[in-house]
Amino acid sequence: EKGGYASFMLKEIAEQPKAVTDTLLGRIDPEGTLHLDEVRITRGELREVDKVVIVACGTAYHAGMIAKYAIEHWTRIPCETELASEFRYRDPILDPHTLVVAISQSGETMDTLMALRHAREQGAKVLAICNTNGSTIPRESDAVLYTHAGPEVAVASTKAFLTQLVACYLVALYLGQVRGTKWGDEIRTVIRQLSEISGSVERVLETMEPVRELARSLASHDTVLFLGRHVGFPVALEGALKLKELAYMHAEGFAAGELKHGPIALIEDGVPVVVVVPSPAGRSVLHGKIVSNIQEIRARGARTVVIAEEGDEEVVPYADHLIRIPATPTLLQPLVATVPLQVFACELATARGNEVDQPRNLAKSVTVE
Ligand code: F6R
Fold this sequence. Notes:
By secondary structure, this protein is α/β, with parallel strands linked by helices. It has 14 helices and 10 strands.
């Protein structure tokens, strides 16, 4: 049933281009317009939304963090993303114009379920993004957008994460489309780019051998740090989470701009630091800043593992290891940048003799608070 792969995780990583395609299927028409009529919230109701609140846990929370950038950029509706486990305990401000988006692969995560129940009690509308048909979270929500990743067996989430991202982009773009923002042209362009993105994911998968080699060479390290900015920050957090849960290593993700506010003190000789570099196009300010960060940490002894787009030559002198990803529109970059981090964690865990499908102390769905 692992289809010739050594683990379900490897199989599920390899299935990502198809999972992405399946999640887009039937939702974009040939003119590049989104059709999400299955989401049973009327256009009128969507036009009245004045705040979006995303609740989720773990990897799904990272997808939600990325969604915040997309939603605010394309719709100009204020959006916050919160850990589902924290949400209801601070008496959040919700009303019928708040759209709460609950993201969950399993649809059974108790923290997320309790957050959505609280939101509905306060009169907010809840849209679930979920991978499991008929599970509790979509059943208790006002509306659902299913991800079509297929069953995810490995405890560590991979293909579900990519499809959660796709679903989040669809929600953001749909809100933009329904409400008609000044980004109308950009929205149409991005819908087209999104419909072609699975090819880029495929290309990343074809070039992973150097990542595997690098992972094996780091098997005896104690710590790996991850840096990113903008949507690359949640990607860094996701890379660190994968490494913790699979390789049982100390791993932390930071927003690169925070380095100087503390974490740079962690940099010492030989410490591997994975840096997710934003697209040089369009976001040149951030790009320049992260290139300086790479220089700074390297000058202090870090072994830099740089994930950068093809054609980005500026990073080359400062990369001890360079991992190339296809050039991708800024907000969509997480769909390609996360994949090497999944492969990296999986290979490192295997090199350390760990069971990647069933990491210690973890369960696939967490049905207690
Ligand atoms: C990490 C992982 C967990 C889940 C989290 C939420 O690889 O799998 O962090 O993402 O427990 O689970 P769902 O999405 O089922 O609500």
